[in-house]
């Protein structure tokens, strides 16, 4: 059960990584939902699964050209995201965290937007577009997966540096590979299948961040008992400005523009917005995160060298 004294602020991951619209809107709603779920004994994973149904329903409703149906879809998507906020807040309030919960939470948004992209492609064909509309539809879908994956990864890296392992959900493919290899298809088919997808997902995140992997490697090697306060302070100062880009390429910005395109009955623009507006932001985010990671990696190496030489 949740601690009745658990405050709204304690249900958040970190003010560094929270977007303003989330703090003003989604997190307060999610907090109330989380309090209710804790009271009735509903755990985080079922809340996530319910959010998937609402998100997929929203996508289906975006297929229709009637604006009033689209508005119902918009409300359904907003509620799905409120539930998605609630599951994490509930997990923190009740300390009911699990690897499966993290995987489900990350996959929920992908299910929503798969449904949305399929619906918008079919809708565009109904409006006279050729089958070629599926090309930008699929490219935008792939872009969305990468954007969300990297934004989520960078948020957890930031939380790892400012809060340590207790405040972060940062995973490594090396650890996940060991867990995956320990399972058997005959005894753990479902979990092994999920673990395979999550392992591939984590490897993709790591492949886009080679400098960051070097930094995490040297940090985990030399700071077993916790990060030095100076490193935490310096990393937070340099990395915090990049958190706004993780917010831009995730839910709120894309959905606000999606709703705009639906209101003016030009839903096809959403694909090109994803490809030609959000992808450059993703690239900028990755490049600058790599610069920050390289700077701190070299700083730690230099410090080690000076200590070895007795400087």
CATH topology: Four Helix Bundle (Hemerythrin (Met), subunit A)
Silhouette:
globular
State the major sheet: none
The span between the termini is 53 Å
* Number of strand segments: 0
**Gross CATH architecture:** Up-down Bundle
**Order of helices and strands, N to C?**
HHHHHHHHHHHH
State the share of residues found in helices, binned by percent: over 70%
Uncertain regions: pLDDT < 50 for 5+ in a row?
Answer: none
CATH class: Mainly Alpha
Q: Please tell me the total number of domains.
A: 1
| Range of strand content | under 5%
Radius of gyration: 21 Å
Number of helices: 12
CATH superfamily: CDP-alcohol phosphotransferase transmembrane (TM) domain
Transmembrane segments: 49-79, 100-120, 132-154, 269-287
Keywords: Membrane, Transmembrane, Transmembrane helix
InterPro entries: CDP-OH_P_trans, CDP-OH_PTrfase_TM_dom
Protein name: Phosphatidylglycerophosphate synthase
Short description:
The protein is mainly α. 76% of the residues lie in helices and 0% in strands.
Describe the fold and architecture.
With 311 residues, the protein is mainly α. The chain has one domain (9-308): Four Helix Bundle (Hemerythrin (Met), subunit A) (Up-down Bundle). The protein is 76% helix and 0% strand. It is built from twelve helices and no strands. The chain has helices at residues 20-40, 44-61, 67-94, 99-126, 134-163, 173-182, 189-207, 210-222, 229-239, 243-248, 251-263, 269-308. Helix 1 packs across helix 3 (67-94), helix 2 runs parallel beside helix 4 and helix 3 (67-94) packs antiparallel against helix 4. The radius of gyration is 21 Å and the shape is globular. 33% of the residues are buried.
């Amino acid at each position: 059960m949740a601690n009745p004294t658990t405050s709204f602020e304690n249900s958040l991951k970190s003010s560094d990584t929270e977007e303003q619209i989330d703090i003003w809107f989604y997190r307060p709603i999610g907090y109330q939902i989380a309090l209710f779920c804790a009271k009735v004994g509903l755990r985080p994973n079922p809340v996530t699964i319910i959010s998937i149904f609402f998100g997929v329903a929203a996508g289906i409703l975006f297929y229709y050209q009637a604006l009033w149906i689209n508005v119902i879809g918009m409300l359904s998507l907003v509620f799905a995201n409120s539930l998605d906020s609630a599951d994490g807040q509930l997990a923190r309030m009740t300390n009911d965290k699990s690897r499966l919960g993290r995987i489900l939470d990350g996959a929920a948004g992908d299910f929503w937007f798969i449904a949305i992209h399929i619906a918008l492609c079919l809708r565009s064909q109904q409006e006279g577009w050729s089958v070629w509309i599926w090309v930008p539809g699929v490219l935008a879908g792939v872009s969305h997966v990468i954007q969300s994956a990297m934004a989520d990864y960078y948020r957890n890296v930031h939380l790892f540096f400012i809060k340590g392992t207790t405040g972060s959900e940062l995973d490594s493919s090396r650890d996940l590979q060991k867990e995956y290899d320990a399972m058997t298809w005959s005894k753990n088919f479902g979990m092994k299948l999920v673990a395979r997808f999550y392992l591939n997902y984590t490897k993709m995140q790591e492949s886009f961040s080679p400098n960051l992997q070097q930094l995490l490697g040297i940090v985990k090697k030399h700071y077993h008992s916790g990060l030095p306060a100076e490193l935490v302070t310096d990393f937070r100062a340099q990395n915090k400005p990049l958190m706004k880009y993780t917010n831009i390429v995730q839910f709120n910005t894309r959905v606000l523009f999606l709703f705009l395109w639906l209101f003016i009955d030009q839903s096809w623009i959403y694909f090109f917005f994803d490809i030609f507006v959000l992808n450059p932001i993703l690239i900028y985010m990755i490049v600058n995160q790599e610069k920050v990671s390289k700077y701190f990696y070299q700083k730690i190496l230099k410090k080690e060298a000076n200590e070895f030489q007795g400087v």
